[in-house]
Amino acid sequence: MPQIGAPFIFIFLFCNTLHWGIETGLHGRRDVTFKEDATRMTVGDTGKVMASINNLVIALTRQAKFQNTAQARRWFAAHISEAFSLLTTPFSRLW
Between helices 69-78 and 26-34, what is the axis angle to 10°? Predict the structure, then answer.
């Protein structure tokens, strides 16, 4: 069996860490909160439309200063008038 050099192992571990950072970051949030991986929307562009709506919801919850998207969804479900006012409020620059 050939020896694997330290640079190869370092690159492999870096790529593995990068992958799981993405998986547990935005993708994990989208999958757990919005159940994107479980959806069966495959007719036409419905999957892309739902992903765009999910992106909008994430952006709006960040705009409202929520750190947790699931918590924000529950709060806005209980405060419908605030949810509508958030939809009509202009975005501020985030950077």
Answer: 40
